[in-house]
Structures are given as structure tokens and as C-alpha cells.
Amino acid sequence: MQPQQRLVNLTEQPPRKKPSSRPSTAPSSFAHIFDENALPTKRQLLDAASCVVVAENGIRVPFGDLFRDQKTVVIFIRHFWCPLCQDYMFSIANTVDPQVLKQSGINLVIISNGSYNMIKSYRQIFRTPYAVYTDPSSRLYGILGMTLKSVEPKAEQRRGSYVRHGRAGGIAMVIANALRVGMPLWEKAGDVTQLGGEFVLGPGMTVSYAHRMRSRSSHAPIVRVLTAAGV
């Protein structure tokens, strides 16, 4: 059964507020106002849609084009060297059937914040058929409410079920993967303090699911995200 979905009311015109800098979630006092599941507002969606992401071939694409015509699951990972996000990517590769997504009329894309020159080899690690883009400035992350560091000091101890490696094992995995596919070590991998999240957007300026990471290991289980998308 497809779960009831919440959509942003796009007929309302919220007052434009003075933009503020993206908050760091390190202070514990921020935890009580951080809502990891709050749906983006209309203004946030419009601002996000106008941002530009960079494709594997270096072409700059308006973010809004990715979900203009089709419901799209958008996964924001951290930097390309993050072992925890690589574990999450493996969970997507091992769990999600691209054919099922296609039959359901749903697209899935991955967004990081490093150099687009790392995308090709990164996709090879997981043999993923899904498009990967980068937001080098992390502006898109900030607009959609994703933050830096951890909301709660103890959050790092609560790892998602997708995490397969400890610290040492994760670093070893990343190095082995990089050598295996020939990742360009000289390229910028992204902001190591940036947290990511998961969203279900479109078609058009609609959003039916949002989740923002509270720590480096708190991606939402991909099955939960797909269920919210109606798969």
C-alpha cells in the first residue's frame, strides 16, 4: 500500500526572509530546533531548483531539472572519501532494483559536493546505474537544511544499520576501492564536515519526504526512503 504523502502547498507565498548562513549543528543547543524531517518550504524548493549541479561530463544542470517531470529520490552523500557513505552506497546497490524503480516511474540520483572529475570512478566502485552530480559550493545542501558536524555529541555512537565498517576498516576499504578503480587522488573530494540527507521530490515543485542526517552515520535506510516514494 502506498503511504499517504504530504505535499508542500505551493499556492501560499511565504514572506521572503533575509538569508542566513548555514548553521553548524555542533552546539548541543541547536538540537532542539533542528527538525531532520521537516519538509522544505516553497521558497526553499524554488531556491534549490535554481541551484546548479555538475554532471559527470562537467555539464552544469539546474537542480530543478532533475525532478521537473518525474518523482525523484535524491540522495545527498557527504564527501567522496567518506567510508560511511560508501557503506550506504553499497546498501543502495545491494537493495534497490533499478527495474522496479523504472516500472514505478521513479528516478534516483546521488549528489555529493566534491569535484565532478571523481564521479566516473565513484560510480564504478558500486557499479551504480544512477546518475551522480556534485554541488561543489554546498549551497544546495544549505538551502535544503542539511548542516555541518553532528547535532548531538552522542549521535555518532548510534550508527545506521547500513554501516559495515569501523574506523580503521572503513579507511582501508576506501583506499582499496580508490586503487581498484583509479580514483583521481589529486581531485577535491568534498567538505569533510558536511552532512547529507534524503529527499523525495517532484514531479514539479513538490516534496513528499525529507530526512537530514544528524551525524556522519545517520542516512535514512534506503528501504524507508523508497517506501515514502511509493515503491
From TrEMBL:
It comes from the Eukaryota. Residues 1-12 have a biased composition (Polar residues). Gene3D superfamilies: Glutaredoxin. This is Thioredoxin domain-containing protein. InterPro entries: PXL2A/B/C, Thioredoxin-like_sf. Pfam families: AhpC-TSA_2. Residues 1-28 are annotated as: Disordered. CDD domains: PRX_like2. It comes from Suillus subaureus.
